[in-house]
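Interim report, section 4.2 (structural modelling).
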Amino acid sequence: MMDEQSRSVILRCEKISKSFQWVKANQGIDLEVYRGEIHTILGENGAGKSTLMNIIYGIYQPDSGHIIYRGEIADIKCPQDAINLGIGMIHQHFTLVPTLSVLENVILGKTPTHGLFVDYKKAKRIVSELSKSYGLQIDVDSLVGDLPIGIQQKVEILKALYRGADTLIMDEPTAVLTPQETEKLFLSIREMIKLGKTVIFISHKLDEVMEVSDRISILRQGKKFATLSKTKTNKRELARLMVGREVFFQRHQEETETGPVILRVEQISVRDNLGLEKVKGLSLEIYGGEVLGIAGISGNGQKELAEAITGLRRTHYGQIYLQKQNITHSSPARIRGLGVAHIPEDRRTQGSILDLNLVDNLIIDRFQRKPFSHFGFLDWKQIHQFARKLLVSYDIKNINEETKADKLSGGNLQRLILARELSSRHQLLVANKPTRGLDVGAIEYVHSQIAAQKKAGVAVLLISEDLNEIFNLCQRIIIMYQGKNMGTVRLEDVSREEIGMMMGGTPLNELKPLLTGKNI
Amino acid sequence: MKVSWTKIRRLTIYFGFGLLVGTVLFIILDVNPLTAYRIMIESTLLSWSGFAETVGRFSTLLLPSLGIAVAFRCGVFNIGAPGQIYMGAMAATGVGIFFSGLSWYFLLPLVLLASFIAGAALAYIPAILKAKFQINEILVSLMLNFPVILFSTYLIVGPWRDRTVMEPQTSPIGQGAYLPLLFKGTSINASLIIGLAAAILLYFMFRKMALGFSITAVGKNPEASRFAGINTTATIVISMLISGGLSGLGGMGEICGTYHRLIRGFSPGFGFIAILIAILGKLKPLGVVVSTFFFAVIMIGTDAIQREMEVPSGIVLTIQAILIIFIFLAGYLKNK
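Predicted structure of the assembly:
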């Protein structure tokens, strides 16, 4: 595929720089994308990938530097300019109208008309042909809201192609996809390349990058470190370039002494906001110095379980004990006071207040208590001292403490939340999907922190969809399905396949006869 | 508070645009715009009586505006300031009439307390409904304005009516309930001091107190605040009690400072204008002080144009609106 034509440069970025207040998101980035290649932009969260792409797509204006498209300086002031040039972008969060059909979504804003009316016949013909020629296979009459995420993404791609995109920027398109959907996406991407399109693919998942790319550019801390041809590199080198040091994919399985039972949950039932019973008579015990994993597909009651334990949701039936104390109907503040730390599922809406600065975010759980306030008056000197110490020890560097939390990358924001939660006096840590959406380096950091908690004798409840994470950190796990415990097992006694079956709804006692000869 | 030159320059430019549009309107109406603007400035800032009138309006608007700022800071959209002002006014009048015999050092604190409680009590209804049952506070607080204001009319024409005069108004309150005038021959009374003191206290509360921090945190993200262990229900209710109480004090200021009895329409739309003032002041206590003064100048100034140049009131209100819209533009279009 490396003939003369595909070697010609279609897009060139020259010395692109962009700063947001204190954060230098892009610093003098040079980038060349060849016509007809799949060019991956690899980097950790916060490395400046999205900023660079948003500059190319006209959402941000660079502070300096310029973009050359097809050999001419492109003055891209807004996404419409980019679209007119033939640059399309598929965002992480889709921009579709769920109540409209696929066809309507695709032609929205660029509608073939017949007098005053929309020419649906013509539109349907164009869109169907387009869809067929790229192997996207979408029923253009179905409602977008009814489609699974993977298909919705195809609709986004179709939309960009319909608007005449030659170069397609895809911002972490696989973040929302299942492995099967990812495979299909890669097939479509290859189809597009065959038909002469260029794809800029953004990712931090090394396996995918090695599978799909022609060339890879690595960004780190707003700078471009290298552009490599896939055939001349490997996963390990990419990881090192991306993180800036050697990465060890290490398991945290040191045996630790387990202490007494810290948390005991007895037969609890919990309902969701619509009144549906999401946790049905679940019991569990966690010992000090143990990480108990809750495996299961999202939406099987894990969130409600975590919220019941932390007092954020009413427990309808059953009891929860922290050591000897019954905390079933205690307030979140009291449960925190008794020694429960909580890393919530969504760090941007539940774990932090994005519009407050770092210092404020570090004290939102404790500003009402001594030594941070006395008789209702805040002691800002004490607060700043405390916050500065935490920011240093949790390695949140080069960021002014007055910066608003929304300027932080995902990894740094999670560090901020860890800093707050782990610095509180606690005997139980409830961590709900603590590494969701994080990159390799940040995941490694979170895992080492959780392992350190275990060593320190804290009881940890780890909720995760990611079996690798569970295998990494836990000894004992509970598999949750439709609010029920499918079985409590020690990891050395089960295979991934068996866990998978339990996640799909087969309880442990029915699994035994299925797998005769195997001792669980 | 940080005041940067770019901010001031931007405000000036946009205000200039507003004046320009006003000029066009004046020219169409065959009114000399320069004379009009001269009158506007002279009648508010350059003459003693005009300045006094402006400060009077400033102190009328300040308390409700501060009140609204507190509720909005907590993410509670209190649109009930008009009703809360009337509640405060009714409480002040009631106490002022029925305890008219008391001397001022008993009566005045009693009147202050009663009016604060009355305003807070009305605000408590939307607050508790929102905090406990997630019922939209905008609807509830807005709708409560109507029965409350109509009830005050009932009191004025009914049980509390002063039968000795033709105009429907209540009997006068006792002298002990009068807010003292600060300057003889003006309408500037002690409600100015109450308003400024409230602004300073709120500034202090948001800066230094755990309660202020809770209110800000809940306003910015109630869910994360709850996750962090902040009692969001209590925070919402307290912010609304402060909010309604301050509006109630505002109503008291009008009765005890100016009218000395309850009359109809003593607060024409001020409770709604206070919403604009609070937003323009970025919901910060000191910002609200500045924006209140700005509104007072615009309102008194354009009134003077109407009076002295016989411009129709509709035009004057239009010019008021144009100036205000341009100042809001300056606040929101700061990036370009």
